[in-house]
Amino acid sequence: MHAPLNSEAFRIVGTPRFGGILVVADHASNRVPEDIDLGISPELMDEHIAIDIGVAGIAEHMAKREGTAALVGNVSRLVCDTNRTESDPASIPETSDGHAIPGNIGIDREARLARFHRPFHAKLTDLLEGTPPALTLILHSFTPCLVSKPDEKRPWHCGLLYDQDDRGARAAQPLLEAEGLIVGDQLPYSGKIYNAAIERHVESEGRPYLYIEIRQDLIADAAGQAEWAERLTRICNRVAIEIEG
C-alpha cells in the first residue's frame, strides 16, 4: 500500500520522477498541531531548536524544476524528530539546547511516533522504491554559532555528512569549493553520529545521496534560498552523473 501524497507529517512538493532528484528536508517546519501544547515560549519556535531555518525555501525552489521533487517535514522537530531513530529519546525531545520541553514529558510516545515518525519514513520509503531518484539530497541547516558558545564562530558555509558511503561528499566538495565556499568535511556535525535517516534509507540500500548542512545566515532570506537552490540543483546533477559513472 502506498503512503498518501500528503499528511500532517509531511508534504510533497513537485512530481517525483525516476532518475530525478529527491530533496529530503525533514526539519523544514516549525508547525505544532493545535492539539499539542509543547509548553514553551512561542519565540523559541522561530529558532533552530524548532526548525532548520531556510531549508523549506530551498526545497520548494528546487522542486519547481522538472525532475526534482521534495519530501518536506510538516511538523517541528520538537513535536517529532524524524532524523532520529524511534528508540532515541531525542525523537520526541524533553529538552533541547538547554530548554525544557514540558509538553513532551509523560506523553504517549508510541502514539506520537505512530502519528508523525512512521508516516514520514513510510513515505520516504515509498518514494525511493516507487520512483528511485538518481540522487537523494538530504538538506539541513546549522547555526553560525552555538548559543552555549557565542564566541566560537562556525566558519564553514556548508558541511558534508556521511557514514560509510562518502561518494556524494567526495564528488560535491570540490564543486562547492570551486565556488569559493568553505566546506566542512563531517563539520560542524558528523554523519557517523547523525545518521538515522541515511542508514535506514540510503546507505543500507546503496542508494546515491548527498547530505548537506548549510549555515543559516546564508539562507535566512528568499534571495539566499534561491541562490542555494540554483547551486544545489547544478551540483546535484553533476554529483549524480559522477556517482553513476
Automatic annotation (TrEMBL):
InterPro entries for the chain: N-FG_amidohydro, UCP029730
UniProt GO molecular function: hydrolase activity
Annotated SUPFAM superfamilies: Zn-dependent exopeptidases
Keywords in alphabetical order: Hydrolase
Membrane-spanning intervals of the chain: none
Pfam family, one: FGase
Protein's name according to its UniProt entry: N-formylglutamate amidohydrolase
